[in-house]
Amino acid sequence: FDPRHYLGTHCYGLPKTGPHRLRFLLESVKDLRETLKKKGSTNPPRKGKPEDVVCDLITQLGSVTAVVFHEEVREIL
Which of 13, 42, 52, 58 could bond 8 through an S-S bridge, CB–CB 3.0 to 4.6 Å? Predict the structure, then answer.
């Protein structure tokens, strides 16, 4: 969970993640954890900037050979 998603937006000061989206995210993470647990794996939720969390996770795992990501598209006004 990226703390920046719960702050106000640049243009209008509205939160990027409102209560309905947050509930959806929490339910999705819960479902993913249950599915992974059934397969013998885990996915503990993490809080922090993704660039820091992913770096820490790679260091912790030690055997990562590739990382794939996508960049959020931002509207330019």
Answer: 13
